[in-house]
Amino acid sequence: MPSTTQDDVSTSLLLASVQATLDSAQESMDAVRAMLSPGRGIVGSEEAALSAAIRTVPRWHFAMLNDLERNDAFEVAIERVLPPGAHVLDIGAGTGLLSMMVARAGAASVTTCEQNPMLAEITRQIVAQHGLSDVINVVSKRSTDLVVGVDLPRRADLIVSEIVDCGLIGEGVLPTVEHAREHLLAPGGLLLPESARLYGALLDSVAVDRLNRVDYAAGFDVSLLNGLSTRGHFPVRLPTWPHTLLSPEVELYSFDFAAGPMADGSAEVDIPVTETGEAHGLAVWFDLSLGGGVRLRNSPDNLASHWMQAFVPFAEPVALTKGDRAHLRLAWQDCRLSASKISISTTMKGQK
């Protein structure tokens, strides 16, 4: 029997990936055919359409809308920073909640954009239900496709958005803000949120690491699956898993949405080790400055937040001793956080 090389394995996985993509496209086409099938009748077509629509809307929308701390923070910040007579752009309408907050706070007009056609239509209907259609215009587009004078009457005096994930950057806030500042914001206009800081700590947790890594199962080597592990950060509700923080909370990086660079980048981070253990990665969370002195955090001690924390896995666990210092590079690229170039400096006993 001929031996299988690593190139053979890689080629097979690539072909399987292409097939999976084609199968997904076929599933979408089958759903459209089911909706348009004359034999299904109105009720059958409506059920098929609803089933397809449900698959396009992430479940976290429900938890997000029920996050009272988040909702209250945005409403207070909007009330504090909204300029009189402002035209406001809300990026990522969702269900239109922030747009309606802005309208209730006294905005002259609001344009809100949503790339998901189903959510855009839901927003239109919710806005109409509350009698705000004269103030709020819903556009079913990405913000990067908006044209001033066509989709919105003029550049916005205030741009509101909430397009952050557990690790801040995962929903594309950086390129979105960069484009909005250049093309959609009026001179002297405001951004809400205005800035953010990333914090983190070294994490020892086999349980969390195994959410994205596997070696053996029932005695069988299944480690090939690691080739499909998540690249970059992923969400984890840290208090629900056995873990030890091997360092204090440290600031990893800060982003100035109003004027700072929004491109992919990296930062060198130096972290003091306060507990002996094996670091499997970084636990990361954000501190979001909305404006008007209002802040939002998804730190591990904030159990009420719908946002989890982000876990940034190391390629391999790193043994650490109390008193060491860990040096690493934290990178943000393609909406993902990653850690690399990890090195350890050890403080000898009695050395200052």
UniProtKB/TrEMBL annotation:
Keywords: Methyltransferase, S-adenosyl-L-methionine, Transferase. It comes from the Bacteria. The lineage of its organism: Bacteria, Bacillati, Actinomycetota, Actinomycetes, Streptosporangiales. GO terms for biological process: methylation. Residues 196-337 form the Protein arginine N-methyltransferase domain. Signal peptide: none annotated. This is Protein arginine N-methyltransferase domain-containing protein. GO terms for molecular function: histone methyltransferase activity; protein-arginine N-methyltransferase activity. It comes from Sphaerisporangium album.
